[in-house]
Design goal:
With 526 residues, this protein is α/β, with parallel strands linked by helices. The protein has 4 domains: 7-68, CAP Gly-rich-like domain (SH3 type barrels, Roll); 130-374, Leucine-rich repeat, LRR (right-handed beta-alpha superhelix), CATH 3.80.10; 379-431, no CATH class; 440-525, Roll (Ubiquitin-like (UB roll)). The protein has 15 helices and 24 strands. An 11-stranded mixed beta sheet has the order 8-10-11-12-13-14-15-16-17-18-19, covered by helices on one side. The protein has a 5-stranded mixed beta sheet with strand order 21-20-24-22-23. The protein has a 4-stranded antiparallel beta sheet with strand order 1-2-3-6, with no helix packed on it. A hairpin with a 6-residue loop joins β2 and β3 (29-35). The radius of gyration is 32 Å and the shape is elongated.
């Protein structure tokens, strides 16, 4: 039966009833509906000069007859539709009004979902730990005692894209699910309760919540948070969040926050989350963020914000400068970054972007989805020193620490350069060419090759092209030392750093990848 505020579906489209009544000069009753997709409607609730209801979009409203609207089914009816009748139909509820109404009318056979064993397990409701009821037109909960008797062991519940219109109705479904950890409620337009904190018992054990595509603002998210006291993972993607107000009393247990595809443009809004005591993962993909800045500290130091943040995702924003990456290095615990498809990256090759990210963020162990091995970090940092070496010298840098005084602009642009100098030392003049020649004579690396397990064989000096692959190097070593390529284990010792040895572990890589330099020593073992 239609009520104002209830959700409906009609011809595959979802909407909310905003009006019930007559629309002259026609006879009979109409439903005034605000459609989720504004292209479905024709007006904003105004018809022939008369206001019947109000929509949020000028073309999202229309009138339909009740017979063309579907008002949904109950949770338990959807359960039967999706999983079939339980194998044990006694279940202690066979005499209930719900059982007679639902089982007696439907007489639905068990739905075969796969192998017979799987089908039996799915149809034994009491054993279900994961219940997936996405897009099943659920609008009501049924009797809470029946739900407790039917699905008492659910740990993950998917109610996304249904016809639920109130949190009270959602709570009736979940209240008896004492083991519920994951709740998916995305794509439901659910009205907020007048006193959210009263609903806490219905969600007391929920740790992961999905509320994507629900047209939520941050203030509404905060109201929802009052119902979930033990939340660890929150996904609020594709909503209407542009401002994020600081609130000291919410999300005290939150570890992951996913704000992908909202409307956040100012970094100050993001910083209002910096106090969260347990936040380790922050996803901000596909917003409109143009700048990152932590004003509480200067370059080379760590910010007091986001003390426990380990991972941040900023793909598809509007970041315009490598300075933003320098700011990310101020995060004390940052280990993982995802930073693709931002304006300042458009003219750089992907492998150069990766090297610069690794060099600029000192504790990074995962970059754009893949791990950063020790050798790759060393290579990236050495190449960074060489790439900006001339700029460093021109700014006042000097190999003599007593005279090394690069200007403030250089330090601002390259806050880790001084740290890298302390680790590796300054690059040679020949390594700091602003536009390196590609001539072969300028790309040859003069190295020594030694095989400690064959002391009778002398160390060999060779000039090798940086473009030579490790596989071809192994073939050369096989000729020189008579050690099969399949048995060789290669490493090298840097003349600048000395021990320990750095493993050369990928046959397809070029020598330049490992930052092997003049007068380094390649060690052959087998």
């Amino acid at each position: 039966m239609a009520t104002v505020g209830c959700r409906i579906t009609s011809e595959g489209h979802y909407g909310t009833v905003r009006f019930i009544g007559k629309v002259p000069p026609t006879s009979g009753e109409w439903l005034g509906v605000e459609w989720d997709n504004p292209e479905r409607g024709k007006h904003d609730g105004m018809h022939e000069g008369q206001r019947y209801f109000q929509t949020s979009h000028p073309t999202s409203g229309s009138f339909v007859r009740e017979k063309k609207a579907e008002f949904g089914i109950s949770y338990l009816e959807a359960l039967i539709d999706r999983y079939g009748l339980p194998e044990d139909e006694n279940m202690g509820i066979e005499k209930s009004e719900w059982f007679v109404k639902t089982y007696g009318q439907r007489q639905k056979a068990v739905e075969m979902v796969g192998a017979e064993k799987v089908a039996r397990k799915q149809s034994d409701f009491k054993k279900l730990s994961e219940v997936a009821l996405r897009e099943m037109r659920i609008s009501s909960a049924d009797n809470e005692d029946e739900i407790q008797d039917t699905t008492p062991n659910v740990t993950e519940l998917d109610l996304s894209k249904n016809l639920l219109s109130s949190w009270e109705e959602v709570a009736k479904i979940t209240r008896s699910m004492k083991s519920l950890k994951v709740l998916k409620l995305s794509e439901n337009l659910v009205e907020l309760p007048s006193e959210p904190s009263v609903m806490t018992p219905a969600f007391q054990n929920v740790e992961t919540l999905f509320i994507n595509h629900m047209k939520l603002t941050w203030s509404e998210v905060v109201a929802i948070a009052a119902m979930f006291q033990n939340l660890k993972n929150l996904h609020v993607c594709f909503n209407q969040i542009s401002k994020v107000e600081k609130n000291e009393n919410i999300f005290q247990s939150l570890e992951l926050l996913n704000l992908e595809s909202n409307h956040i443009s100012e970094w100050n809004q993001v910083k209002n989350l910096g106090h969260l005591p347990r936040l380790t993962t922050l996803i901000l993909n596909n917003n409109a963020i143009e700048r990152i800045q932590f004003e509480d500290t200067s370059f080379g130091a760590k910010t007091s914000s986001f003390q426990h943040l380990k991972s941040i995702s900023l793909n598809d924003n509007k970041l315009n400068s490598w300075q933003d990456v320098n700011e990310l290095d101020k995060l004390a615990g940052l280990e993982e970054v995802r930073l693709k498809r931002n304006p300042f990256l458009k003219d750089e090759k992907s492998f150069i972007i990766r090297q610069l990210l690794i060099a600029k963020i000192g504790a990074l162990i995962n970059c754009n989805g893949s791990e950063v091995p020790t050798i790759e970090r060393r290579t990236a940092e050495l190449d960074y020193l060489k790439k900006f070496g001339q700029e460093w010298l021109k700014s006042g840098g000097d190999r003599d620490p007593a005279r090394n005084r690069p200007n403030g602009e250089f330090c601002k642009n390259h806050p880790r350069y001084h740290t890298l100098l302390e680790i590796y030392g300054a690059p040679e003049d020949s390594e700091m060419s602003a536009a390196p020649s590609t001539a072969l004579k300028n790309t040859l690396i003069h190295v020594s090759i030694t095989c400690p397990q064959k002391p009778e064989t002398k160390t060999v000096s060779k000039k090798l092209p940086g473009s030579m692959t490790v596989q071809k190097l192994k073939m050369l070593i096989q000729r020189l030392f008579k050690v099969s390529t399949s048995d060789q284990k290669l490493a090298y010792i840097s003349k600048k750093i000395g021990e320990p040895e750095v493993e050369i572990d990928n046959d397809m890589r070029q020598l330049s990848f490992y930052s092997i330099e003049n007068e380094d020593t390649i060690v052959v073992k087998f």
